[in-house]
Amino acid sequence: MSSLKQRQYNNNKRLEIHQKLLTLRQKIVENRKSKLLAVPKVKESLAKLPKKCHKIKVCPSTACQDSANKCLRSISRDVRATAALVCETRNRILKELNEIEDSLHCLTGNEIRAVDVGTTGLIIDKPGLWHFCENIQTPGIVNQGPAIIIAANDVVLDLGGFVLQLLNPTSANVGDGIDIAPGVQNVTIRNGTLRGWNFSINILGENDLVIIEKLKIIEFGVDESFNANNVTVIGIQAVNMSNLIISNNIFDNGSGVVIALFAIDGLLIENNIISNIVGNTPIPGIGFVVLEAIDISDIANPTSQNITIRNNIIENLSSIATSANSFATLQAISLSTVVPDIFQQNIIIESNIIQQLTASADLGVDVEAIFVAGAFVPEIPPISELLSGPHGVVCQNNVVQGISITGSAQPNAGFEILAIQIEAQHVALEKNIVHNLVYNGPDTVDPSTFVGIFGLFSRGGQGYISKNNIVENINASVITSATFDSINIAGYQSCVCGIDGALIEGNYIVNIVSPSVPLISTSSFLAGFNLVTRTSELQNNVSNNNPNGFIFQNISPEFGLPPAHNIINTNTAIGNLNIGFWNIDPDNTILNAFYNNYARSNPGGNFVGLTGSPIVTWTLPALPPPNVDKLANVNILP
Fold first, then answer.
1. Cα gap 559→377, rounded to integer Å
2. Contact indicator for 265, 303 with CB cutoff of 8 Å
3. What is the pLDDT of residues 238-252, one digit of tens each?
4. What is the model's pTM?
């Protein structure tokens, strides 16, 4: 457009806006008049009252009061009608003001139209407010490049409610929607829709202060050719940056990884909705279906730290592997390091709702709603291994419900649900709810198959607090054969050599429906609590209506560590199918101190394996002896 035509166009737009402002001003005047019109109506109604009824106290008669009430009702109707008129006028004015504001944005010189993007893309190379003025649809960008590159500091890209769309996306027609160039700082992307891109937003590194808010990121990676040709699909990706905020966005109808982050210092992910996402196969030659809603992974220093993930809804995720010899993984929130001796730190995961997760494959299924862990190094003792895991994790007030997996009878297959898995040091795991975890089968006949279902799974080095969590309704009743390599099902599971310095308090585990196999074997443990801890205190917990109430193990000698010496007090086990409190392998758990626990209606025995130290027994409701010494390992049976 020539400069003369541009000026003429701008002048016409200004005249148009000026006319709208005049009209708006007239409406404001009319609105004020409507308020004034109500006054004479009220005065007129008041004038109809008998003079002596203006003060009801001097007119006590029923007739006078009825007349006054009738008049007041008339006044009330007038006031309500006036209020409705004012409200309607106000809303209409606000709508027109927003339309005018959008038009003014498109006269700043930083407007973005479809012709600006075209098939070669747009580079934003100066600061300021950039604003979409229309929907932008492109058949594709040359060399599969980004539609928009932000290459300047201090940019606000406002999509203005419009759409940036890649038409007909396939594995041969891919690209990024919006890229933020390396080193760029202080960028906001907001208020619109990105559709069809395999990387909707890509933040390329060394960036600082990026805000992504009020976007809809939809239909990414949904074409089947993405899977067939192993194309990676990610909604938002960021690498090696600081101060990133992702808030109030909707991610819907996509595949692969929704948010993928690496080495982020200062991260807030809040108030997002992630729904209707399916797995993607990104690795050539491997039948591995991957679905991750929020993934924060690190492979080297610096690692991610100072992370808050809160108030998000993650639902309707499905990772289904249909080919033979395949695996399926599904993680709603995942934080991990993949090499030893590096760790993430200062992590808060709170008040998220994660629900309706489904996965199936024939060789292996792994589903984790919340997963926080370091690198697994099996050749060194677990205590050393965990020192390289995350430090400082708070996981609280989350709800996880509705996870189901389906496996197969293939040899060496493994199928796991870990609703909340935290492997870290200095952890607070509090007030979470886990509900409805289901293994759908099959009832395998291959002896090398493994099944594990865990509501809360903890492994840590030092300082682990688990309080006031609820786990209920774990169902694996479909299993009827005992030919599995192992079946481990627990509401609360501490693993390997367990956790030192832990407080496990006030947790409530109920209604684990066990498979119809032996309730315990050398390789299968089914319980409300399956605890492999060394120096911990377990108190005020409840394990009812489960295969076993509490199982205590210790494998420390395998790693050259001393026997366990835990304190187990004031816990309850009622109505379990087998044993209430089971101290397995007393030689290695001889120093565990049990006192003031309550068990009844456990057919396999209320207390089993509590030997090797004095036992004090009394019949309830007698009270325990005063001043019980926790370290004396006194076992008190009801």
1. 14
2. no
3. 999 999 999 999 999
4. 0.80
